[in-house]
Amino acid sequence: METKSAEEQQLIRYKTIFDKAPIGIMYYDSEGKITECNDSFVQIIGSSKDVLIGLNMFTSLKDDELLHAIRQSLKGQDIFYQNRYRSVTADKQSHIKAHFKGLKDEHDRVTGIGLIEDITETTKLYNKAKENELRYRALFHANKAVMLLIDPDNGTILACNKAAQKFYGYSEEELTQKKIQQINVLHPSEINQEMQAAREEKREHFFFKHRLKDGTIKDVEVVSGPFEQQGKTLLYSIIHDVSDKKKIEQKLKHLYLHDSLTDLPNRNFLHEILQRSIKHVDDGETKLAVCFFDLDNFKNINDVYGHEVGDQIIHKAAWRLEKHASLHNTLARVGGDEFVLVLEGMDDLDLITMKIREILKDFEKPLHIEDTEHFISTSVGVSVYPDDSKDAKELIKYADMAMYRAKESGKNTFSFYQEEMTEKLFEKMLIESNLRKAIDNEEFTVHYQPQIDLKSGTITGLEALVRWQHSEMGLVSPAKFIPSAEDTKLIIPLGEYVLRRSCELLKRWHDRGLYGGVVAVNVSGIQLEYSDFVKTVREVLETTGLHPRQLELEVTESTLMWNKELWIQKLTALKELGITLSIDDFGTGYSSLSYLHKLPIDKLKIDRSFVFNLPADRDARVLTDSIIALCDSMGLRTIAEGIETKEQARYLVEKKCEDAQGFYFSKPLPPEEVEGLLAKRFSF
Q1: For the segment 65-85, what is each residue's pLDDT rounded down to a tens digit?
Q2: Beta strands of 173-286 (E only): which ranges?
Q3: Residue 365 phi/psi, 5° resolution?
Q4: Helix, strand, or coil here: 461?
Q5: pTM across the whole model
Q6: CA 152 to CA 14: how far, in whole Å?
Q7: Sign (positive/negative) of CA torsion 172, 177, 182, 188?
Q8: CB 485 within 8 A of CB 522
Q9: Residue pair 286/347 in contact by the 8 Å Cβ criterion
């Protein structure tokens, strides 16, 4: 049986509170459409959830006053409404009391929440009381609702009914000897403020806190109005205990503003917190740092160990970060593995740097989960107030951008925001927005770089390299659009396009007797993880008619670092198709040699960073020689990339490296130019 995560359990508790609340609750969006409601709301309105969910109140309701209240709430106001309401499905009228409040979600979109109560019976009593004083007196004493009669001049309680005596715990004699000010525990200024708001909003109900005889303090809503008795205007009050309602409201608000797993402030609350921090910093004339943390390779933790362990990692990471938040600093969880730490009172950048390094050092210690040590690092982006911006939203955005720079710099490090990051982000967004159109419009072409057999000098392989010629941006570097394609998962259709084009071309050349070697196509980890890539390769081979032995797939070493068992399964399935498999950029990913022999691979590709310094650099020679020797012992073929000089080529021949590619032989060329090289024999 699968154990629910802490976050799922919290959501279940929230839904239970919502569904079982004794008051009607509805959520609505900025267009006035009801997005969610509970059973109490459905019962009060007299309809069904199927009818209500999606109902546009602005076009369906005919009550102008009610519509005005809802619209005002979407402007950020707290609106109280009380009036008659005609049922949607039944020919009857109810009297409802509602509290509408505007909210903002994590994308700063305005939404609203409405708390609805049916006060039909109370209203009927009130109307009857106004019609006849004698009848009112009888209703006053017999009513089950808590009722008081008060002298407005001095606040003396003149009369109380039995329900009031039971609620407050006083006898009639004790209660009528008190003034309402003795029961109300709010400060006089708070009372005046509440009454003033009621007068401005033309409402007759107030929210107070009343102390009972035993000392218990209750949240109460008081409905008051004038009552004429023997020529003197008195004040009647009907008191409703809304303590449970207040607790529900507070719980809902807390859930809306806090992360359910860690109970830290969430993204909704962070903006408000940051604005307060900015004001506090302005008063002290110091800097403020917004530090955006993202746990490195956290997705792999979830994939390998499961979400339950992932939740525990998040919880412990939050606790570790929270240790570094002092009295005036705030930590918020803004995403699955993302946190923001707001640091106040920072005098200069050196102090911020020292603090971040202290946190990174702390993350070098293992996290212990169920007797297992987990090492997880974090990348940090930092923006500074007022240096980078004076706007809270921009500071968060800039810190997020700086965090991605830290990721690109190798992770487990930090980066301060710089203006050029905004330009790069704009460029990245421009590339992403054009990428999908480019695939649909077939703006991509495939070039091929020859791979040379170092013994014979003949071309035995061609590496397929995608190129993008944009009508306005010109030739877009693969270093710019490939990461964007992987981020958006458009690498899946793009990769299939390159694979299909390459197989079609090779099949044509094979049928014409021009070329019988292989074509090497790069494969992204995204393709392996998020698509049925084995099925795609099988289908492309079948439809193009290319023999599997003429297809080679290259997977980068860094792709294989995490979840090795999964990649072994996927690569084995590909190998069973009869194709060749190679590891690209070998020597840069720190892969475990214990896993290397388990991989169903045929070839290792020596990274250009080692070849570049050959043969002069001793370290480059040692590393290259070691890789060639390793491959020889394991029966793997070696290919070196990035050959630019005759000396490099001759050194590799001497060390018995089988294949090579690089500008010394040929740059990547379009198919028609490669065709002219296929029969060439290279010498060096």
Answers
A1: 889 999 999 988 888 887 766
A2: 205-211, 217-229, 232-241
A3: -75, 145
A4: strand
A5: 0.50
A6: 42
A7: positive
A8: no
A9: yes
